[in-house]
Amino acid sequence: MELNKFFSNKELLKYLPEFIEVYNLRPIKNNKMGMGINHSFAVYALLKKLNISHVIESGIAQGHSTWLIENSIPDIDLISVDLDLSNRLYISKNSNTNYVEGDIEDISFEDLDTNKTIVFFDDHTNVMHRLKFLNAWGIRYAIFEDNYPPGHGDSYSIRKILSDYGQPITDMVPGYKYKNKFEKFKFLPKNLQNRLTTANTTWPYFLTHYHHVQNKLRKPNLVDKVLFRKIVKNYYEIQPIYLYKNQKWGVSGWDGKYRALEPLFAEIKDSKFSTEFEKFEKESPDRMFNYNYISFVELN
Ligand SMILES: C[S@@+](CC[C@H](N)C(=O)[O-])C[C@H]1O[C@@H](n2cnc3c(N)ncnc32)[C@H](O)[C@@H]1O
Which domain holds residue 211? Predict the structure, then answer.
């Protein structure tokens, strides 16, 4: 599996003292619906290093990432998109931040300066679909906040694309088994059975009400990784500050398909910021240092 580093440890560590000062001020201390410190630091360092002036954020939830982006680069132009804006605890008053309730595909990017723009995806959708979209608008940089390994997570990630794995329903709903509750009506004539079965009764409803989830699933295939390599010039992951011994899926260890880049610190106590890290961990116990292999891509 490809695990390309974008930052050397030395370069990443340079951003850490200023980041910790900023992170101390975050309004949502225990960001239950979103990212913790490993991913927040990766986003902060990427925006700084690439000298970004425009960000489009897809997936706001309570608003931690909106706050983080605004506090990484002063005066940044930000378009923040979510299907549902009602979960926001942090609501920006910044005149350079504009909210859109909907999907990123609802917005035109015709006049965008694509050299200084990055799209930050934390919307748990379908990376392949999003890459085709970015490619069509000529956007060059994107962060995919979750790069789930095959077998886990509710989105079609880069790791899954490169493993020919697709995105099965069981990654989103572990243990799911389709049960036809109308099975017992099999004695009825076919047309009557059809009128009762889910295909006829709920498909139209589902298709009109839940259009945003319709490209979430993908069957295993050999083609997406070919297209991925055509669209993407470089693909990287950003190493974490620190890794828990066990992952959030109850899996122990970080090898095999779970392999991750080496963290900056093997132990929190090894770091000169251990006091701050311990405080952050207390503010969001057992999830502050979660890590889903945050990834960054440069498009051709
Ligand atoms: C994990 S949360 C985002 C967390 C946030 N970035 C943070 O770190 O605090 C995912 C969000 O994506 C939103 N979402 C799901 N599908 C979406 C789509 N197609 N477009 C935009 N947002 C979407 C959900 O409503 C949810 O608020």
Answer: 177-215
What's the total number of domains in the chain?
Answer: 2
Does residue 103 line the site of ligand 1, with CB under 6 A? Answer: yes
* pLDDT classification of 86: cutoffs 50, 70, 90: very high
Asked if residue 3 is part of any domain, the answer here is no
pLDDT at res. 138 = 95
Quote the pLDDT of residue 197.
62
Which one of 60, 103, 217 would you pick to mutate in the ligand 1 pocket, going by the greatest count of ligand atoms within 8 A of its CB?
A: 60
Same domain? For 71 and 187 the reply is no
3-state secondary structure the chain: CCCCECCCHHHHHHHHHHHHHHHCCCCCCCCCCCCCHHHHHHHHHHHHHCCCCEEEEECCCCCHHHHHHHHHCCCCEEEEEECCHHHCCCCCCCCCEEEEECCHHHCCCCCCCHHHEEEEECCCCEHHHHHHHHHHHCCCEEEECCCCCCCCCCCECHHHHHCCCCECHHHHCCCCCCCCCCHHHCCCCHHHHHHHCHHHHHHHHHHHHCHHHCCCCECCCCCHHHHHHHHEEEEEECCCCCCCCECCCCCECCCHHHCCCCCCCCCHHHCCCHHHHHHHHHHCCCCCCCCCCCEEEEEC
Q: Are residues 147 and 243 located together in one domain of the fold? A: yes
* pTM given for the model: 0.93
How far is the centre of ligand 1, averaged over its atoms, from the C-alpha of 69 (Å)? 15
